[in-house]
Each structure stands twice: as structure tokens, then as C-alpha cells.
Amino acid sequence: MKPDDPHASSEADREIEEAVFETALGLEDPDSRDEFLKQWFRHDEAALARMRKLVEAAEKSAAFFVDARESRMSIAWDAADAFESSEFPFPAEDPKLHLVEPGSRIGRYRLTQRIGEGGCGVVYEADQEEPVRRKVALKIIRLGMDTERVIARFEIERQALAMMDHPNIAQVLDAGATDTGRPYFVMELVEGERITTWCDRQKLDIDARLKLFIQICQAIQHAHQKGIVHRDIKPSNILVKSSDTGATPKVIDFGIAKATSDDRKKRTSITERDQMIGTPAYMSPEQVDLRNIDIDTRSDVYSLGVLLYELLTGRPPFDETSLSKLGASKMRLMLLNTEPPLPSQRFAALNRADQVETAAARKCDPSKLSSLLRGDLDAIVMKAIEKDRNRRYSTPYGLELDLRRFLSDQPVHARKAGRVYLLEKFFRRNQVACISGAAVLLSLVIGLGSATWLFWRERHALAEQVRLSKEAEAARNEEDRLRTQVNAKTNIAQLANLLNLGRAGSDIQGIAGVTILLNEGKAEEANALLESYPIDSVEFSPDATYVIRTLAHWNAMRGRWKSAIHCFRWLDRAGRHENPEAVIEGTDCMCLAALLAEYESPEVYEAYRQEALDRFLPTKSALAAEHLLKICLLRPTTEENLERLKQAMEMCASGARSNYSNRDSFPQWDALGIATYYHRCGNEQQALVWSKRSLSFRGGRGDRQRSANCLQAMAYHELGDVKSMKEHLDTARSIKPPNFDTSSDMMLEVWVDWAVSRILMTETELICSSLSIK
Amino acid sequence: MHGVTDRADISHETHWSSDRLMPLVYDELRRLAASRMRKEAEGHTLQATALVHEAWIRLAGSGEQRWESRAHFFGAASHAMRHILVHHARRKSALKRQAESFQDSEERKPEDYLLMVHESLDRLEKSDPDAAKIVLLKFFSGLGSKEIAEMTGSSVRSVERRWALAKAKLYQMMQHEDDEA
């Protein structure tokens, strides 16, 4: 097996050595490991000793190289820095290096000045000339950044923004590319001041600040419903514009950190040296913890909490300057483990002068501010910035609701803490301390002095790699599986990089490829690619959700119901990891239900209906209730189910009473839901009452009106009023849905209500054609 | 030296030599630095985007690349990369010593790590060139296992294994030097 030469030069020997090494490492139990090595090297004492030493070295070397890798990064950056100096002049002419100067034109926009930079783009202010004259913000991809990967990234940002339609989110107006092929997009120009400074300048009191903040929650919630996580919520990304109609806060810069010039100097940002994005003071623990793979919507909730903290007390929970003094790994440790002070405590700890100043900016005095913060607001903020994301508000909406409760003097949900809760917290804190303690001890022994917890991560990674490769041995397409797993598990959000192309653009694989194709408008190809990819193995993440949801709707709009159902099923599974409240307030379940009802057998729809009842009852909001009713009432059903749905109907009723739609409910739809409910119960009089109410709200695209008229037709049929039945049947028939094939992305969910109305229409036709009178 | 012509050539080139590549790599690095790539939060993908990797993408452009040529390129480019990094680390190290610091000398500076690896790597090259090769590719060039696997025609798993073993060997070597020192 092995010659005396300790450094086996033959290929086979080397492979054997590696295999033995790996196997030994795979045996975690030291006795088994020793046993194995003794057995294997039983004829060669020297080789045994060598391998033993190597195995010993393995763990330490892993730790060492973790640090070494970071150091290499830092040196590499430094080296790049050095190149910038004038020793290295530019080559003569290279068109790619032509900078875009103010005054130049891009498409129908004339750039006036540069307003910021960050991420992979530069933002200019520009004048739009036609079709309307106005000022806009134009973001163009940076020079030297036009690798395919970055372009695709840029496109994703644009797509993300384009999907959103909310008064508090900066709107995308246009997109294009220059003649040299640099992509850009045009956004609404938000002229305003950062929210924190604006509030201070206006000396807004706490109530006013909370109301402003609630608008931000709504904006972020809107984004989440589109499947987009912002990931970098902080004051500089929220500008407030004052106008005659009042103040409008606007969220800008989704996904990529933006820094204006003053920001750079004041805020600690570790984008350069380390693999962290964003501003540490605002980053949620899971963003900081590089082990984590899925940054979800709750991460945004955390950042919102920090923002709220700052709006209330004038500073974020962790002091930026002291954070920046710590090294990267210590900073991480702190953000991960240390409990921040309560807002009221933070305020109390300030010196007198600061207290007076802070309180004045909130139109009160220190003692009043202190008492305002204590209790409810403390609780709400702390719940939002819980380290364990399961303990946070699961959605910005949840946070908004609690703030509304506070504002209307209702009991706040955040204050449920009992002894058990505190005890859990105590244990958790100590548990973490224990781990770090051992790690610190270990590191002292090894003598590395830093990055102790990273060592643990590496250790896990090492063991996991070995385990993974063992599992993969069984799989046929071993490499693909590893890649799929490893790629998915690589900190997608952290790297902000779906686009793990690997090779310079040749073959695009996986979700990354689908995204790129989508963004190029090649939905056809994107879909084909998605179909060929084992969708079931796609790990749940906001990015994957965005892609699959887009394609789900795209398929549905083109009548490809099989594919659509496939995608929506995935979304349904993904939704099980989420808070059911959030899921039912979204549209995924509705869409799935509509498709199942129309195209699958009654049993399949029935099964889903039952599931929905089990999952989502009792409903917590009118919106949730309306959706649930929609899902469950597409076909007639049993008394038992109707009895269960009563709660939802009542919840809808509370919403339907209002005359205005808002975040909580859409009364016109609530009314329709209730009407459907009553019809299914056989209470046709009430069904008519509520249908009329729904129709009393004008507007909409026609789908609601069609559904309402169908219900009326069916109700009149039951009541024996043929004339009225005919009238409404004709009205329903006359309302035509639009052609969805040519829809732009902006109309993603519109088809579902048309589908619902179609289902009702089919039912109505069937019933009313029999023309039998009861 | 720089310009469009060179770029077109690269994709067909199969034989590389260090001195031919060095200037090109330098050139590309300079270009990247000049466009201030380093300031970008595109550093999200720092792990995968070593300067050399980006340099390769830009030099070679997109399209099918024969892996042999890439392997050659990367091998040579990694040497270039190592050279650059070590040169830099040495400069930094020297500067630090000049500026007296009261920081605890226990704590290793980034430069120290790099230089330790570099020095021991020379020794490793003599005794186990394959292990040294992978340290060069992985550590100095920052290439991913998948890319290395493609280039060398092995599987990702064996690359990872090789890397793990190489690290252990290198570490041993470093300890040796420590002991001898």
C-alpha cells in the first residue's frame, strides 16, 4: 500500500492518503478514530504517527485558515488600493472608461448632477424631457461593473422596484441601456431629508413620529408581499418629503446599500473589508451571523425596530462609535449576543444635556419622554429587535398593529412577558456564553486570539463537508447534488448573490439562471429552465420565492395551469415556514385554490379547502378573512364548514362596515366575500344585500362586478325571480376579462380575481340554464 | 500590451507563461482598481470574487472556454496573485513595525497570516507539490472548489478533500518553522 516515502508521489497513493484522512476526520468519536487509524496502519508505525499528526493538525489548520482567508481579503483590498495611485496611469483610449458626466444625455434624460453612489450603481439627478417634463433620479450601473453577473444583479434590483406600487416606495419609471450597453433605470426623484433628521428638525412629538413610522411599515409590508426583502433599512434609506399635502416618507434603494457622501464618513460600514453588507448597527443578528442562510422578512422587522428605536431615543441600540472600535469578529459577537438596553434605559443613561436636547426634538421634556417610553413602547421596540427572529413580530404589519394599539390606548401585544419567557432568555444567553467560553479557552490554547466563533463555524463546516460528501457518494449525479446543496446553503442573502454563475457566463444553471432569463424578459425560456430544474429541491428563500412567484403568475396568466399549480404548490410549502397570518394575507393560497378549483378534480380542491380551514382559522384580520372566504367558497360546501367559516365572515363584516379601503381591509371585497358566504348558506336575501353593497363601491377592473352579478343571478334563481336572474346574468356575461398574454409584470395578481369570477360564472350558467323555478 | 486584440487572443491561447500573463493580470487588476470596484458592496461576493477571478472573466470574456487553457491561465495567474499579495503584505508589515504600536503583539495582523502561509508554501512545494498547488489556487487566488474541480478535471469532493489535507500539511510545516525559529 504505501512505500517508505512519506510524501506519496503516485496518484493512487495520494488519493488513498486523502481518503484515509477524510475518513478519520469523519469519525468524530476519538476512540473510533484511533481504532480506525491503528487498523489501517497496522503494518506501518511511522505512517500511523504521521497520519495521527495530520489529523490533529486538521482542526487547528481549519481554524487558522479561516483567519488567514480573512487576512488575505484584507490584503487584497489593500493591494487594490495601492493600484489606484497615479503610478499606474490609464491606458490611452478605452471607451469603457468614459465616465458619465453631468450634462450628458442618456435616452430622453439629461443628467444634471450626481447625487449618490453605492452598490453597483451611481445615481444622478436628471431632467426628463418627454413625454412629460420633470426631474427624476437615474441610476446607472457603474463602470467596470458590467460583467454579466453584475448586470443581472442590477436588473434584479430594477425588477424588484418595478414590482412595487406603493405611495411610500420610490417608484420605477423607466429602464433602458445606453448605446454602449450600460443598463440604467429611472426612478421617482425623492427630494427629502433623512427621516431621523427631518423628525428632529420638525420637532415631531412621539405620536407624530409613530404615525410616520407606520407608513414605513406599510411600505415594507407591501414589498414583502411582493416577495422582496429590503435588507438594508436605515435612516438614510428613508427620505421624507414635505409638501403642502403633508409629509410623505419614501423608502429608497432596495437591496443594495446606498451611501451619500456624508454617510460614508459618519456611519461605520463594513462593506469593504469583510463579507458583511450594510451598516452593522442596523443589521439583524442573522445577517451578522454568517452561518445563517436565509434572511427573511423578519430581518427587515429587526431593522425597522432599530429605526423605531432611533426615532424614539435619538440613537440606535448599539452605539456606532464603540462598535467600530471593535474588530469585525468582536462586533459580530456583540451584535449576536449582547442584549441592548431598553429605549427608556438608553435615554436615562444619557447625560442631562443630551436628554434635554433629545426630548426637545420630541416636543417634550426629559421626564415626560422617559415615562412615555417606559412600558409599552419599550416592549414594542424590544420585541421588534429580538435576537431570536421567531420572537419578533413576524411581519411589519404586526409591528404596525401594536403601534396602532399603543396610539389608541389599547393593550399592546408585546407585553406578554412572563416568568417563563424571561427564564428562557436567561438560559439562551447563558448557553451562548458557554459556547463562547469554550471557544475562548480553546483559542487561548491554540494561541490564535481571534475569530473564536468562526473557528466553530469552520469546524462545523469541515465536519459537514465530510458528511455531505459521504451522502453524495450514494447519489448518481454526485457533483450536481453537492453543488445544489452547497450553493443553496452558501449564505445567499449575505452574499446577495443568487448569481453563482461559476463560469464566465457559459451555461447558466439553476435558480440563478432562471432569474437572469426572467430579467431579460425571456419568460418563456425562464419557465422552461425552471421546469427542467428540480423545483422541489430549491431551498426556500426570498429570492427563490420572488422568482417562482413571478413564474407562477406568468404561467397562470397564459393558461398554463399545470405549471402554475406546480409553482404555487412550492409557494404553499414555502409558506408553511411562515407565520400563517402573513401567508393568508398574501395571495398565494388564493391563487392555488382558484387553479385547483378550476382545473383539478373536486377531491383535490376539497383537500386543499380542508387544509386551509385548519391552517388559517381563526382569522385575525378582515383581509385574511376575505381571502379565506374566497379560498373556501369557490364551490358549495357543507354546513359544518360554513359554521367554521362564520368567524371569517364576521371578521369580514367588521371590515365591510367601513366606507374606505385601507391597509386592513377592502370593504368592497369584504362585502363580496360575505355575499358569497350567505349564498352558500342558502340565505339568498342576505346574499343580495351584500352583493349590492359590494357593487355600491365603484371602480375596480370588472372582476368583482362580474362575481357579484353572478351571485345575484344565482340568488334570484333560488328565489324564483327569473326576470331579475336574467338581468344579472346578462350583466355578468357582458363583462369581459382583459387579455393576459400581453400583460406586463406589473399586473401579476390580477388574473386571480378574474379566475374566481370565471368559476362563479361557470356555476351560474349551469344553474341558470336549467331555468327551473323553485 | 493592452487593448482589444489581446483579449481576442486569449480565448484561443493554450500555452501560457508567467511573464506573458503577468502584465495582463496587472493590467486588469489596475483597471478594476481604477474603476473603484473595491468600494462596491459587490464585495458581497468577496468569497467568490477574488481579484484574479474577476480579472479572468474580463480578460477572457464570455463564451465556452476550454478548461485546459483556463487551468493554465489560473495556475500562472495565481503565481502573479501570490506575488502581488506577498509584496503588499511585506510592505504593510514593514510599515507597521515603523509605526510603533502599543497593541498587544500577541494578536496576529493580517499580513502575518499571509506571510506565514507564503513562506511555508515554498517548503511544501518541495515536498508535496500537489498540495502546494491547491493551496496556491484556493488561498491565493480565492477560487472556489467547483472551479478548481473543472480545471483539474476532478470532482468537487476530491478537491475539498485535497484542500483539507493540504491545509493540515501546511499547518504542520508552519509549526515546524515555528519550532525551528
> Which two protein chains have the largest interface (Cβ within 8 Å of the partner's Cβ), and how many residues from each?
A-B, 83 and 79 residues
| Mean pLDDT across all amino acids of chain A | 72
Summarize the biggest pleated sheet of chain B.
none
In N-to-C order, the SSE pattern of chain B is: HHHHHHHH
Oligomerization state = heterodimer
Number of helices of chain B: 8
Number of helices of chain A: 33
Query: How many strands appear in the DSSP assignment of chain B?
Result: 0
Uncertain spans of chain B: 1-22, 31-67, 99-106
Helix content of chain B: over 70%
| N-C termini distance of chain B | 44 Å
What does this protein look like?
The complex is a heterodimer of chains A (774) and B (181). With 774 residues, chain A is of the alpha+beta class. Chain A is 59% helix and 7% strand. In chain A, helix 25 runs parallel beside helix 27. Chain A is globular, with a radius of gyration of 30 Å. The termini of chain A are far apart. With 181 residues, chain B is mainly alpha-helical. Chain B is globular. The N terminus of chain B is likely disordered. Chain B: One of its GO terms (biological process) is DNA-templated transcription initiation. Chain B: Keywords: Sigma factor, Transcription, Transcription regulation. Chain B: This is Sigma-70 family RNA polymerase sigma factor. Chain B: Pfam families: Sigma70_ECF (PF07638). Chain B: InterPro entries: HTH_Sigma70_ECF-like (IPR053812), RNA_pol_sigma-70-like (IPR039425), RNA_pol_sigma-70_dom (IPR014284), RNA_pol_sigma70_ECF-like (IPR011517), RNA_pol_sigma_r3/r4-like (IPR013324), WH-like_DNA-bd_sf (IPR036388).
